[in-house]
Amino acid sequence: MSDILQIKNLSKHFGDFVALDNINLTVKEGEFVSVLGPSGCGKTTLLRVIAGFIEETKGDVLIKDKSLKGISPENRPVNIVFQSLALFPMMNVYENVAFGLKRKKLDKDEIDKRVLGMLSRVGLEGFEKKKINELSGGQKQRVAIARSLAMKPSILLLDEPLSALDRKLRERMKIELKELQKEIGTTFIYITHDQSEALVMSNRVAVMNKGRLEQVDTPVNLYKHPGTSFVAGFVGENNRFEVKERSGNQITTKSGWVLEKPDLEFEPKVMFIRPEAFIVEPAKELNDLYRFEGFITNILFDGANTKMSISVANEREILVSLPQNAKFQGLKEGDKVKLGVGYNNIKCYKE
User: Fold this and answer.
1) If both were cysteines, with which of 10, 32, 267, 349 could 188 make a disulfide (CB 3.0 to 4.6 Å apart)?
2) How far apart are CA 309 and CA 103, in angstroms?
3) 3-state secondary structure of 148
4) Contact, 224 vs 218, CB < 8 A?
5) How far apart are CA 63 and CA 186, in angstroms?
6) In this predicted model, what pLDDT tens digit does every residue of 263-294 receive, in sequence order?
7) 67: Cβ–Cβ under 8 A, 6 or more apart, which residues?
8) Using CA atoms, how far apart are residues 229 and 232, in angstroms rounded to an integer?
């Protein structure tokens, strides 16, 4: 796949505030890339610079090797699906999808072909005359996407389009969007603060923090090998420990818990262990484990998964995933449990 989008040394300042700080990102044609980060990290500013609604302070955005400097939003080969969807309630489905095509003054046959073809592809064949207020939330979402894709953009930008949907519909739409993008092949740049959306749908995820890209990677690598302490703390559930000191293979947390981490080559400031990394009642023959004991203070059941809060000597409670195994279903609050964690699953960072 060739590169379709290149963001080079991109910065955006609003007075003294740095919204984007030297962003570099390359996206290949046909990729689904999510930009993930907390509110205020700069992800929407990045999208608006790509779309042409905001002018960069420095740097450049190129699509198919062509700089977008000085090109107005309506003349850029991108289209955008907003969080609010921005559908016209006085128009029916056909008229909404055809709106941009009519403004481009395409002939009626071409408009018909594109509108009906795109409605079929998003699963809304036969909905042409439906009013917007007659549609469900998911159907409205698909109308907004069909309207954007009918314009045949090189890149579709999506600004948190699922955030207004209820949880069940949002879960279903994640799968539908992923399948739709694979079928159509248009490059998607998806802005979200929801890590589940980013991990489920994307080929790659770009994690932003305070206007900077912390890490760009596949969902699996991002989760299993977070490159910075911010990524480790933001993506997925994690137990975070502030480190007081390291002496040889031993790390002492600020609360006084002492554990082992062999072959660490730097002085760590913070440490993370994911809940599922802990082994409950580990077999004696397992090697390369740090072993310890604790007491169950809470059992947290949410239907699909069960987690335990474990009180460890001198340490605040840690969160541990409970295996879906009948052997462990009898555990209750107050029980003493043996735990182990592989040395490789203890992630340490300088800051």
Assistant:
1) 32
2) 59
3) helix
4) no
5) 13
6) 888 899 999 999 999 999 898 888 889 999 99
7) 60, 61
8) 5
Q: Residue 69 phi/psi, 5° resolution?
A: -55, 130
Give the 3-state secondary structure percentages of the chain, helix then strand then coil, rounded to 5. Answer: 30, 35, 35
124 within 8 A of 143, measured Cβ to Cβ? yes
- Its pTM stands at 0.89
Q: Which residues pair with 250 in a beta bridge?
A: 247, 260
Residue 17, C-beta contacts closer than 8 angstroms, at least 6 positions apart:
none
Q: Could you tell me how far CA 215 lies from the centroid of its own chain?
A: 12
Structure tokens at 82: 């907003």
Return the structure tokens found at 64: 């198919």
Residue 308: both structure tokens together: 């335990």
Can you tell me which residue has the tokens 């008229």?
95
Residue 248 zone, left/alpha/beta (φ > 0; ψ -120 to 50; rest): left
**Closest by alpha carbon to 81, among 213, 185, 231, 192?**
192
Which tokens hold the place of 110?
A: 């071409």
Q: Between β-strands 270-273 and 347-349, what pairing exists: parallel, antiparallel or unpaired?
A: antiparallel
